[in-house]
User: What shape does this take?
Amino acid sequence: MKKILITGVAGFLGSHLAKDLVNEGNVVIGIDNFVSGKYQNIKDLPSKLFSLINTNASSNKLLSHYLLQDIDEIYHLASPASPKYYQASPLETIKVNTQGTKNMLELAQKNNAKMVYTSTSEAYGDPEITPQIENYRGNVNTWGPRACYDESKRLGEVYCYLYYTLFNTKVKVARIFNTYSAGLANDDGRVISNFVNQALNNESLTVYGDGSQTRSFCYVTDTILGLKLLMKQDEANGEIINIGNPNEIKIIDLANIIISLTQTKSQITFHPLPEDDPKQRQPDITKAKKLLNWEPKVDLVKGLKETIKVYKLNLRK
Assistant: This one.
């Protein structure tokens, strides 16, 4: 049994991870201030193995919190991840990815704990190379509506680098590419949740630009396994590793697949492309395969079918 801290525990990934770790018999301490996380995601976690600290990960009071003694592992997932949420709370997003990351690194150092920091494929910005490999430095705009997320995640990586090189903190960085499942809230604002909800309601699917931009979608169980393997693997200390599905798809093709799977009467409408929206997303996962023996197992159609099935049930309720 381990004592494991998860920040952002009420979010999409955090709640999935908490359920996994509790089911394995671990004690989980969760931190969340519910800016984008939802209490319903964690309400069924057993109180014998799960405790919640309702605060922001950037709070300095956490460093002396009585529940955060003798921690074995830290998953720092806290941060709004959807443009809808991080653009609504840009300063809070910057703070949790910078001061919050520093706090978690301090706790890791204090407890001699392992830590995984979840960065993002947005660290690559609008990439000039594809697929994106970890040593690519990116093409990121510091002066735009996405910068609060992209650049604060990059600075969080810098904190991890410094604590690893200066203090030998056992930290690893996961650059997560688009993750999905039925667990994505229907008001999340990300493309799969948008398309599935629109299709099931026979509404027009809103495609931005001409739909030729690409993304790579990884089912949540694959992403969670990748994070757990990253935590486990000591050879990954001080490393940045892409966690994502290398199968790239155009957004217009994704829309047509969802229309076909839902058998909807929905049409596709086209809207102006948001500022700084990246044209491509495709991870190179060579490093993950080598260091973690990890690669995604759930193909897109299978994952979409499962997602659509649960969304349908929720609509009926």
In short: The radius of gyration is 19 Å.
